[in-house]
Design brief:
The protein has 238 residues and is mostly helical. Helix content is 70%, strand content 0%. The relative contact order is 0.14.
Length: 238
């Protein structure tokens, strides 16, 4: 009478059980990461497309009016001045001057690819924003609905200021995170750039230049354009 072996050999154990699942390799992890990024990009693009179609059909939404009036009711000391100052970088020819000066500084720092992406990206982004405005053909907020603290021309959707801030200051934010060494200077620069991008949307609504949905569309559209700028930059750097 034979007694069963309590400790089967590794060979028999491997044959009887299932083979161990191999951990995903670097290529598979990279492919999964790319798919997730592409899925997120497609989702943002779809949301923007839906918002753009609705903005073309409706001059404003009910929540636009409610949110705009709430923002304009804010009366903290210095808030009005802050809102005006935040929008200055997008007024008139200021964006053109900022882009040129920034590109020149980058060239002196031997960042030629960064300077090229900054100039070309901002220029094409401006053209794209103008085209999107003409397609949407959405009117600006009326003074009979909200306070309009200025004279604004062109169509309303998407917000040109917000689009520019996201693409330009967003690219500077990306480069700052990439090149600046950790420290208080880096922290201050990153904080200022983030605040500019975040507050410009509030500023445009507060000044009566845009509806909140115009601002939301610009954040989405500008974010998509910034993603493309960074993707091209990374391709050129490799």
């Amino acid at each position: 009478m034979q007694i069963a072996d309590e400790n089967p050999s590794p060979v028999s154990a491997q044959n009887d059980g299932q083979a161990p699942v191999a951990a995903p390799g670097p290529r598979r992890r990279t492919a999964l990461k790319v798919r997730r990024i592409e899925a997120a990009f497609a989702a943002v693009l779809l949301i923007y497309a839906v918002l753009a179609v609705l903005a073309h059909r409706y001059a404003y939404f009910t929540w636009d009016l409610e949110l705009a009036r709430w923002i304009q009711s804010i009366s903290f000391p210095g808030f009005h001045t802050l809102m005006k100052w935040v929008s200055l970088a997008g007024n008139g020819s200021t964006p053109f001057i900022l882009v040129i000066v920034t590109a020149v500084v980058m060239l002196f720092a031997r960042l030629r690819i960064e300077a090229a992406i900054c100039c070309i990206g901002a220029a094409l982004g401006s053209i794209l924003d103008t085209l999107l405005k003409e397609i949407s053909d959405r009117p600006r907020p009326a003074s009979s609905l909200v306070q309009v603290l200025g004279h604004y021309t062109h169509e309303s959707f998407p917000s040109g200021h917000v689009f520019f801030y996201v693409e330009f200051f967003g690219f500077l934010l990306f480069l700052s995170m990439l090149y600046l060494k950790p420290g208080w200077r880096r922290a201050i620069i990153l904080t200022l750039l983030i605040l500019l991008i975040a507050l410009v949307g509030v500023s445009r609504v507060y000044l009566g230049a845009h509806w909140p949905s115009d601002v939301a569309g610009a954040y989405l559209g500008g974010g998509i354009w910034l993603w493309l700028m960074i993707a091209v930059y990374r391709r050129l750097r490799t």
